[in-house]
Amino acid sequence: MKVAKVIVDVPASPIDSALDYEIPEHLTEIVQPGIRVIVPLGPRKIMGFVVDLAQESEFDQLKPITDVMDYTPILTGELLDLSIWLKKETLCFRISALQAMLPAVFKAAYEKEVWLTEEEQLLPEKLRHVVQGREVFPFSDLEESEINERDIRNLIKDDLIDIKYVVKGKNRVKKHTFVEQALENHMLMEEYENLSAQAKKQKDVLSYFIDQDEPILLNDLIKKVQTTKAPIDALVKKGILKLTKKEVYRDPFEHKSMEPSEPLQLTPYQENAIEPILNSIKKTYYQTYLLHGVTGSGKTEIYLQSIQRVLNKGKEAIVLVPEIALTPQMVSRFKARFGDEVAVLHSGLSQGEKYDEWRKIHRKEVRVVVGARSAIFAPFENIGIIIIDEEHEQTYKQEDYPKYHAREIAKKRAEYHECPVVLGSATPTLESYARALKGVYHLLELTERVNDQAMPEVEIVDMRKELHRGNRTMFSESLTEQINERLEKQEQVVLMLNRRGYSTFVMCRDCGETINCEHCDISMTYHRQHHKLKCHYCGDERPMPNICPSCESDSIRYFGTGTQKVEEALNVHFPDARVIRMDVDTTSRKGAHEKLLEKFGNHEADILLGTQMIAKGLDFKDVTLVGVIAADSMLNLPDFRASEKSFQLLTQVSGRAGRHELPGQVVVQTYSPEHYSIEMASQYDFEAFFNKEMQVRRQFQYPPYYYLALINISHENHVAAVEASKEVANIIAHHTTGNCQLMGPSPSPMMRIKDRYRYQCMLKYKQRENVDGALQKVLDHFKKDIQQQKLQLTIDFEPYHFM
Ligand code: ADP
Ligand code: ZN
Ligand code: ZN
To answer: Where are the beta strands (DSSP E) in 74-135?
Structure first.
C-alpha cells in the first residue's frame, strides 16, 4: 500500500474527513489502520490516526508521512468503524470520536516545539517577543502570539525557525531496575564461599539469592538486606548478579491482599434472572437485558457468574460502574473472583496509571475491565458480555464532545460482538424501563433481597410543621431522637445533604443584598476554610466582605445549608459524636475518598455526613440510621428529570441502612412531603412511581415519549447571542420534517457564564431522521463563527443538563 488515509488532530470542520498521505518506503511495514502518525499539515507537523490504506489517491503530489507514533495499532478495526457511527450519532468531529476512545495520555502524547535556526538578534521583532532568550520553546507560545499561520510558514521558508515535535508517548512507560542472579544456584554458593569475611554485605546479598531466585526490585532488595547499592554493584561487576530494567504496572490496588471468593449458590430468583443471560452467552447473540432488582437483591452475583461463563468461553467482559461507586469495596468483589484477570479504569488514577491499565487490556493480559464511562471503549477484540451497573446514573453520559451515552455504545459494540448487554438498577431510567415493557429490552426482575430482609422503614418528616412548633434547627425532633439512640447503642448514622440546588450564599440581614458573581449571575458560595467567596461556575474568588457593599451594615452573614454548616450544627447538638464529612472539599485529594470510608468502616466515627456521593455503593454493617436533611432541594431544579432524580436518590440512600443483621431506619426531612416522588420512594414503589411519572412525561411530551436535542448558543456579545439563537430557531423551523417541536430560543437558566451570554433551543422529536438535516444546516450556517470561536454552539442529544 502506498497511501494512508489520516484523520488529523484538528477539530475543525473543513478537514473532518481523512487526508491522503504517502507512505514512505521505510514505513510501509509499520503503517496500518489504527496507528498514530505524524504528518505535515501546512507549516505544522501534526498527529493523526491512520484509518485506512489505499493503493492510490485521487490527488497527486501527496506529502509523505513524517513518522509513526505507534508500532502496533492502538485502535481496532471495530473501534475505527465505531468512530464513524459516533460522529454521526453525536455530530462530533471524527478526531474527537477517535480520541474519546483512548486514555488522555494519548491525546497529550506529543508536543510541538519551535527550534531557532538563527541568532535571536536576527529575528523579526514579532518573533523576538516570543523567543525571549530561549532556543527551543513550545509551539503553543507561537499560537498564542500575534504570529499567524502565514508568518510561521515564512519563518520556516526563510530558515529562521524549525518546527519539531517531541513524541512523548513512546517512553511513557515507567521502568524499574530489578536485580537477578546471573549464575546458577550452585555457582552462587561457590562465590559465597570465596568471598572474604570483610565482604559481609555482599555475602548477605548473595544469601538472599541463594534462598530465592525471583528477580527483585533494586529498592526492595536494598531494604530487605539492609544494605546500600555498593555491594550489589560489586556483585554485578563480577558477573554474579545482573541488573535489568522492567516495566512495572502501577497497580492502584496492589497493597490490598484479597481473599479469593467462590461463586455462591444462586437463589431461585437469581437462577431465573440469570438463565436468559447465560443462554445468550452460550448461543452467541446480542440482546439487551434490564435487570431490575432492589439493593441487596443479588445483582452483582449475577454479574459475576455471567462473567465467569464468558471467561470460560475464552471471551472478555466489560463492566461499567459509576465513577463514584468505583470504590475499593466494589472493585475487590471483582478482583476476589477473577484476580489478575481484572483491570480497573477510573478517573482517580493518574494518567500513568490509566495508561498502564489500558495497556494490560490492549496486550490481552486481562480479560475483565471494571471501569467508569470511558471503559466502554476498552480495546478488547472478543467481547462476551457488557454490564452497566446502576444504569440510571447520569455519569454514563459524557458532557464534552463527543456527547455520547455509554449505554448506546454498549449496545452498538454488543451487536458487533454478538453478546448480551446487562443494564442493572434498583431504579431504572424511565427510558429503559419503558423499553423493557415494550419488549425492546428483555426485563429481568429480582423482587426480593437475598437475605429476605425487609427494606428499611422510611419516616417522612414535614419540616414546615417543625418550624411552626418552634424548632429552628436543621434537625427535626424525630431525627434528633434517633441519632441520640444510635449514639447510645454505638451504631452508626449516615446523613445526606443534597447540595444540588442548595448553597451557602451570603446575604445582608439589614437590606437583603446578596453577593452574586459578576460573570455568572449566580450567588457566590462561602468557603469557610479560606474565608472566601467562590463562584462554582467560573471559579472566580473574592474575600468575604466584613460589611455589606450596599448599605455598609455589618450584619452580613452566610446562609443556606452546606455540609460544613451541618457539621457545625452536629457538633453543637451532638457534642460527643465523632463526625466524618465527605464532600467535594474533603475528597478532592487522591485517595481521600477511600480513606474516609475506611475510617468510617473501622468505627472511627459515629456519623458519616456527606453529599450524594455517600448514597451509592457503601455497605457498612453497623449503619442503622440514614437521615436525609433536605430531601426536596432537588425537586425545584429547572429539569424535567427532577422527580426521577429525587426518587432515585432517596431509594438509593435508604438502601444504605440495615444491610446486614441490624434493621435499618430512614428519616427523610422535607418541605414537600406530599410530592409523589418522596412518597413513593418511601414505600419503595418503583412501579407506582413509574406509572405516575410516565403520565407527566406524556402530558408534557418529554422522554421517553419524545427524544430531545438541546442546542446551546453563547456569545460574548448579548445582541449577537440573541440574533444567533433566533437564526438557529429559524433554520430548525424550516428544515425539520415529521413530528417535531421546537421550544425557544430562550435564555438558559444560567444566562451568563464566564462573561458569555447563553441561549438555548430545545427540539423534541420522534425520529432522528426528521432533525438531522436541520441540525447539520445549523452547523454549516455558523461554521465560520464557530471556527473563529466568537460563537459557541453545541448540540446535545438526550441532554441531562439544562443549565
Ligand atoms: P445488589 O448488587 O443487587 O445490591 P449484591 O449482589 O450486592 O446485591 O448482594 C447483596 C448481598 O447478598 C451481598 O452481600 C452478597 O454477597 C449476598 N448474596 C448475593 N447472592 C447470594 C446468594 N445466592 N447466596 C448468598 N448470598 C448472596
Ligand atoms: Zn446591606
Ligand atoms: Zn462566576
So the answer is: 110-116
Cell numbers for 614: 455517600
* Domain identity same for 393 and 282: yes
d(CA 569, CA 515): 24
CATH of the domain at 672: 3.40.50.300
Task: Give the pLDDT band of residue 282 (cuts 50, 70, 90).
Answer: very high
Same domain, 717 and 631: no
- Report how far residue 166's alpha carbon sits from residue 19's, in angstroms, rounded to the nearest whole number: 22
- List helix spans (H) across 418-460: 430-438
The CA 612 to ligand 3 mean position distance, Å, reads 23
Q: 3-class SS at 582?
A: strand
Q: In angstroms, what is the span from residue 457 Cα to ligand 1's centroid? A: 20
Residue 315 CA to residue 294 CA, distance in Å, equals: 29
Q: Is the pLDDT of residue 497 over 90?
A: no
Domain coverage including residue 380: 268-446
Residues with CB under 5 A from ligand 3 (ion): 517, 519-520, 535, 537-538, 540
Which residues neighbour 159 within 8 Å (Cβ) at sequence distance 6 or greater?
117, 118
Does the residue 642 lie in any domain?
yes
What grid cell was written down for 611?
A: 453529599
**Are residues 357 and 368 both part of a single domain?**
yes
280 and 396 within one domain? yes
pLDDT at 169: 43
Strand 707-715, strand 756-765: pairing: antiparallel
Question: Does 617 score more than 70 pLDDT?
Answer: no
Q: Are strands 383-389 and 420-425 parallel, antiparallel or unpaired?
A: parallel
For residue 296, which ligand has an atom nearest its CA? 1
Q: What number of other Cβ atoms are within 10 A of residue 194's Cβ?
A: 9
Using CB atoms within 10 Å of the CB of residue 180, give its burial: 0 to 12 exposed, 13 to 18 middle, 19+ buried: middle
Give per-residue pLDDT as tens, 647-673. Answer: 998 888 887 776 666 778 999 998 778
Helical axes 299-312 vs 328-338, angle rounded to 10°: 40
* For residue 731, pLDDT beyond 60: yes
What's the pLDDT at 456?
86
| pLDDT of the residue at 637 | 60
Based on the structure, what is the number of domains in the chain?
Answer: 7
Q: Please indicate, yes or no, if residue 253 is contained in any of the structural domains.
A: no
Residue from 266, 300, 448, 653 whose mutation best tests the ligand 1 pocket (most atoms within 8 A of CB): 300
Query: What are the tens digits of pLDDT across the range 230-244?
Result: 899 999 988 889 887
Q: DSSP letter for 52, please.
A: E
Q: What is the mean pLDDT of residues 170-175?
A: 49
What is the CATH classification number for the domain harbouring 196? 1.10.10
Annotated binding-site residue numbers: 508, 511, 517, 520, 535, 538, 548, 551
* Residues 547, 570 within the same domain: no
Please report, in range form, the residues annotated as the binding site for Zn(2+). Answer: 508, 511, 517, 520, 535, 538, 548, 551
Sheet holding 756-765, edge to edge: 740-753, 756-765, 707-715, 791-797
Q: Output the average pLDDT for the chain.
A: 85
Note the pLDDT of residue 481: 96
268 preceded by a cis bond (ω within 30 of 0): no
Q: Are residues 231 and 276 in the same domain?
A: no
User: Which residues line ligand 1 at a C-beta cut-off of 6 Å?
Assistant: 264-267, 270, 293, 295-301, 450
Phi and psi, residue 91, nearest 5°:
55, 45
3-class state of residue 402 by DSSP: coil
Q: Are 496 and 641 part of one and the same domain?
A: yes
Task: Give the Å distance between the CA of 545 and the centre of ligand 2.
Answer: 11
Atom of ligand 1 nearest to the CA of 303: 6
DSSP 763: E
Query: Cα separation of 548 and 528, whole Å?
Result: 18
Residue type, position 708, single letter: L
- Could you give the CA distance from residue 30 to residue 39 in angstroms, rounded to a whole number? 15
- Domain identity same for 555 and 569: no
Please state, in angstroms and rounded to a whole number, the distance separating the CA atoms of residues 801 and 799.
6
